């Protein structure tokens, strides 16, 4: 591997341990062990600095590399674009920005305008600011509250954490921003924990949102922000009846529906966007990770024309959306995103996500016959989760430390998987899978074999 030959692994590891502050890691552990340093990727496989090969079943660790590693067509397009025009502020236009925005909204009937930024957190911040500004401009400041769902996650900034339903992610970062209000989750497997009925759970869960709106006062609620499928909170696919009723509730109470597609966007579930699986018609859609598959930083806040027009009053100097994203002006983002969309279409990766995802889910469900600890399998497309329990009858969550041991066992055997981690108190017990959309049965079969062996050893 050329990357290894050009660098001394010991030197790189020493520099990393001395100077890098890693994401989501307790660095005390690095006093006695080395960090894993990923140096090369091709397709669904990555190699670390020791030369060990792994199958990556989480698309870059945070569900991002949708088209796989080593895509020279994206890298070449970005390189060619940057030597011509690398950057200009978003107050000006660019060829790539115009072409990408047009192509994007063609995939999103009913939506019309694209605000470019550089991360999912930032895209959601834009949406929150839009809702707040609409409240001040058109509702006397009253409809400023933003509802979010328990277990959902929308980003790392204080405002996004304030709209986050993963309370271990929020802990120690308060006080949170005011005006964000939580609604209950919609995990049918945990319906009994909510005192919910066994029938028509989806409608019941949606009704809980309306109860919050009525409690807060409909004239104070401006938007409802939801993931189409709850991602880091446990891979929760909303049950039948949920989305139809949610849309009706939002329409009746004049509440903007904001769908956070940061994880599900760009084919992850088998459609361009997760909300399209449920017939949802949102007012605002945010996206990031898979937009350029990690080849460049880009995120988008996409709105209907109606939302956009609420900022076009030339008689009011304060009416324009007074916001800027410095790196939203990087040309590399929309260039990479256009090439990413080309690959998704040319190689039929949405269909592959649907077909391979169904096969993969079936294989994971087969593990339930072998391992009592596998309590529930859920997901859609190449996005799946296995909730681990210590008792199937009571659904007592498996110990979080053991869940992490399963992840470590798979890693030792050359397969990278994920798990809910320091997110939902008492419920960090779901294994998570989001491989690149190029995955084959051979790839996914190896992942299932690794999980099978890990469950057998850890929970023996």
From TrEMBL:
CDD domains: OAT_like. Its cofactor is pyridoxal 5'-phosphate. GO terms for molecular function: pyridoxal phosphate binding; transaminase activity. It holds the Pfam family Aminotran_3. Keywords: Aminotransferase, Pyridoxal phosphate, Pyruvate, Transferase. The keyword Transferase applies. Belongs to the class-III pyridoxal-phosphate-dependent aminotransferase family. This is Taurine-pyruvate aminotransferase. It comes from Wenxinia saemankumensis.
């Amino acid at each position: 591997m050329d990357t290894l030959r050009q660098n001394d692994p010991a030197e790189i590891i020493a520099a990393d341990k001395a100077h890098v502050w890693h994401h989501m890691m307790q660095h005390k552990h690095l006093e006695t062990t080395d960090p894993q340093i990923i140096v090369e990727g091709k397709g669904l496989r990555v190699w670390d600095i020791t030369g060990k090969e792994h199958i990556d079943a989480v698309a870059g660790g945070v569900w991002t590399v949708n088209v796989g590693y080593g895509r020279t067509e994206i890298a070449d397009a970005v390189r060619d674009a940057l030597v011509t025009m690398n950057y200009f502020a978003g107050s000006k236009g660019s060829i790539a920005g115009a072409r990408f925005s047009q192509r994007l909204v063609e995939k999103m009937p009913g939506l019309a305008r694209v605000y470019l930024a550089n991360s999912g957190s930032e895209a959601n911040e834009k949406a929150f600011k839009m809702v707040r500004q609409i409240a001040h401009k058109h509702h006397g400041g009253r409809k400023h509250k933003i509802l979010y769902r328990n277990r959902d996650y929308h980003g790392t900034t204080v405002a996004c954490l304030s709209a986050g339903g993963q309370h271990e992610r929020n802990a120690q970062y308060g006080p949170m921003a005011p005006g964000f209000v939580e609604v209950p989750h919609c995990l049918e497997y945990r319906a009994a924990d909510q005192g919910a009925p066994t029938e028509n759970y989806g409608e019941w869960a949606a009704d809980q949102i309306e109860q919050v709106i009525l409690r807060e006062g409909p004239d104070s609620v401006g938007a409802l922000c939801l993931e189409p499928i709850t991602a880091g909170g446990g891979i929760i696919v909303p049950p039948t009846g949920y989305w139809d009723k949610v849309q009706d509730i939002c329409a009746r109470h004049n509440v903007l529906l904001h769908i956070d597609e940061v994880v599900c966007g760009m084919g992850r579930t088998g459609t361009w966007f997760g909300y399209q699986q449920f017939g949802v018609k949102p007012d605002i859609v945010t996206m990031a990770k898979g937009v350029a598959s990690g080849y460049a930083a880009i995120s988008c806040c996409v709105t209907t024309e109606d939302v956009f027009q609420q900022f076009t009053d030339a008689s009011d100097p304060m009416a324009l959306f007074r916001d800027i994203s410095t790196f939203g002006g990087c040309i590399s983002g929309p260039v990479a995103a256009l090439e990413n969309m080309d690959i998704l279409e040319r190689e039929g990766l949405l269909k592959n996500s649907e077909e391979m995802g169904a096969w993969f889910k079936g294989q994971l469900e087969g593990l339930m016959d072998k391992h009592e600890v596998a309590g529930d399998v859920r997901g859609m497309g190449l996005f799946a989760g296995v909730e681990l329990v210590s008792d199937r009858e009571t659904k007592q969550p498996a110990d979080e430390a053991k869940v992490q041991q399963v992840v470590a066992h798979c890693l030792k055997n050359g397969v990278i998987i994920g798990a809910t981690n320091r997110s939902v108190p008492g419920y960090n017990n779901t294994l998570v899978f989001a491989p690149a959309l190029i995955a084959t049965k051979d790839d996914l079969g190896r992942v299932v074999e690794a999980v099978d062996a890990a469950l057998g050893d850890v929970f023996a």
